[in-house]
Amino acid sequence: MSTAIVIRQEMKKARANTLRLFANIDDVDFRRQIHPDFSPVGWHLGHIGVTESYWILQQCKGETSQSTLYDSFFTPTDTPKPNRIHLPPRAEILDYLATVREHVFSFLVHADFSADHPLLQEANIFNMLLQHEEQHNETILLILRLLAMEQYDAGKSNSNQIDSFPPAAQTPPFDKSRMVLVPAGPFLMGSNHQGTTLDNERPQHEVEVKDFMIDRYPVSNREFLQFILADGYDSPHWWSVEGWQWCTQQQVMHPLSWRQPRAGEWIEIRRDTVAPLALDRPVMGVSWYEADAYARYVGKRLPTEAEWEKAILSGVLAMTGCVWEWTSTWFHPYPGFIAHPYQGYSVPYFDNQHRVLRGGSLATQPHVRRPTFRTWYHPWVREIFSGIRCIQNVSMYSNKDVEFQ
Ligand code: AVJ
Ligand code: FE
User: Fold this and answer.
1) Is the CB of 349 under 6 A from ligand 1?
2) In the CATH scheme, what is the code of domain 173-253+282-404?
3) pLDDT at 89 over 60
4) Beta strand pairing status for 391-393 and 212-215?
5) Are 310 and 405 in contact (CB under 8 A)?
6) How many CB atoms lie within 10 A of CB 236?
7) Residue 334 banded pLDDT, cuts 50, 70, 90
8) Fewer CB within 10 Å of terminal CB in the chain, N or C?
9) How confident is the prediction for the chain on average, in pLDDT?
């Protein structure tokens, strides 16, 4: 199959996913800012279309804009978050998306991906747009989960709904205390694959890593519950100074979507269900501060992103791709980094204020799932599908039950 045909199929799949997310959203929630840190879901829809139009129709095809009004309204730097509620009608946005798509597909059939063109070679701009839409899909999903929490807290949701996840018994039995050794030595971090990676993953470079022990599994709800029961949220000694400040100011006492309807009874709010806390599932919805405090509580630490990447490449990690895993590394450019094609994608966030997360969540779609993919958030953000996997220096490791790979 030709590259163009594969890309066309993948773009259709991603769009079908996008549109499916909106199936049960009423018009009020479509245009409402459910959380101050996130745009209305309807804004994300228009933004996906404007981004596609800009890169393919304007930058590659040389067409004039379909709508300069849309361009500025759906461009983050032009329209501050609180103004994004003034959305055009939903049907009009959907029409706009369909028109842009038609023009994009008519360009795609004739696109020359072997040409020496900075956007088209190896179809890199199409791959970027696919990943862009998929990342926004994940953001839309987390906003829908915030909506479900809002409804639950307002007493508007049915707490007898059935959990849609597979029952805990279907997850493999494992000893979650198990850590695995990754021996010292250099490895190649990042990628040189111009076609499918994003700028911040490039170039590939050698990194020397000391030996370390890493959790085979992400931290489970059961394990995190121990932290709560041990008064972890009331014990400043586990927390960084900033983390403790955040924890007390925000009065954080449990992961974001957990609720305790009766003492000792924990439930979890998901997009479509409210269900008893699934103890064997990875904990999700924690900030970097909480992840860091938990790691100290168990006598471990968070991995650097180099350690995490080396571990996943060594094949020792289980259950990756269930939750985004916090690392201790500030988002930064790799040596030799070149911004491409979109200056605003990575560069503004190389500010030593965003921590890197790795691996992907259940809401992460296929084009965003790979060992070298990097995402980043401020350390206090917990509205995302974020979890924890800890490591220890070999010298700190006391458990004799070491598993060698
Ligand atoms: C990399 C997920 C933090 O959603 O803010 C989407 C991705 N950049 N449009 C975000 C992104 C521009 C970004 N994250
Ligand atoms: Fe975007």
Assistant:
1) no
2) 3.90.1580.10
3) yes
4) antiparallel
5) no
6) 13
7) very high
8) N
9) 93
What is the location of CATH 1.20.120 in the chain?
3-153
Within its chain, how far is the Cα of 183 from the centroid?
29
Q: How far is the CA of 347 from the centre of ligand 1 (A)?
A: 12
For a substitution probing ligand 1, which of 139, 197, 381 has the most ligand atoms within 8 Å of its CB? 139
- Cα–ligand 1 centroid distance for 173 (angstroms): 35
CB 355 near ligand 1, within 6 Å: no
Structure token pair of residue 177 = 């205390």
Kindly tell me if the per-residue pLDDT of 404 is higher than 80: no
Residue with tokens 């129709």: 57
Q: Which ranges in the chain are annotated with CATH 3.90.1580.10?
A: 173-253+282-404
Strand boundaries in 94-240, DSSP class E: 179-182, 185-189, 205-209, 212-215
- Phi, psi dihedrals of residue 296, rounded to the nearest 5°: -65, -40
Q: Which amino acid is at 114?
A: S
- Which residues have a Cβ under 8 Å from the Cβ of 97 and sit 6 or more positions away? 15, 45, 46, 48, 49
Q: Which CATH class is domain 3-153?
A: mainly alpha
